[in-house]
Description:
By secondary structure, this protein is an alpha/beta fold. It has 2 domains: 2-138, Response regulator (Rossmann fold); 146-205, Arc Repressor Mutant, subunit A (Orthogonal Bundle), CATH 1.10.10. 53% of the residues lie in helices and 13% in strands. It has helices spanning 10-20, 35-45, 61-71, 86-95, 107-118, 126-138, 151-161, 166-173, 177-191, 196-205; strands at residues 2-6, 27-32, 49-52, 76-81, 99-102, 123-124. Strand 5 (99-102), helix 5 and strand 6 (123-124) form a beta-alpha-beta unit. The N and C termini lie far apart (44 Å). Pfam families: GerE, Response_reg.
Amino acid sequence: MNVLLVDDHPVVLKGLRFFLQTRPNIHIVGEAQNGEEALQQVEKCQPDVVLMDVLMPNMDGIEATRRIKEKHPHVQVIILTSSSDKDHVLPAIRAGASGYQLKDVDPRLLEETLNAVMSGETSLHPQISNQLMTHVARGEEQHSSYHDLTPRERIILEHITHGQSNKEIAAELHITEKTVKTHITNILGKMGVQDRTQAAIHALKHHWFEG
């Protein structure tokens, strides 16, 4: 997979490159030190995955993620930051990030995260996952509304609520399974949930597809 590294700290960039370039299936195609450079490098390097810091000058990682996903929905973005603040976590997920990892993550877990998002899955640092589950349990977080989803995302989510697999959805909509996975990743990010089951439960609970 082709990976773009985005961080405003040269030492972090050097460390990421040192580890990732030793992995046989990972190719570092570029680096950027802020969100604006990230947008330029995505156009130039055509990465499969972007490892994105949050707090950067000129344009932060959340805004950069949103713009990347709008123009290149197939590009997966993993937030890699020192911030576990939910004021950063939730906006990043809603912007379309497929993963959120802290910089203290074990390098092996980072590699697993890269492989997971390339397979259409989401991946959260255990600390982030626990925080989100706590907020959901307390009812402190609000999911996105039905109107936050695109028409295509609404159709796919409705199929999910009917219990259809990615393969079945792809066949019915005449699109590829990879495209279905990309849409599902975006749906999960916008809804702030971790998997398709949670998304389906929320949609059914709020009667999104009735009437």
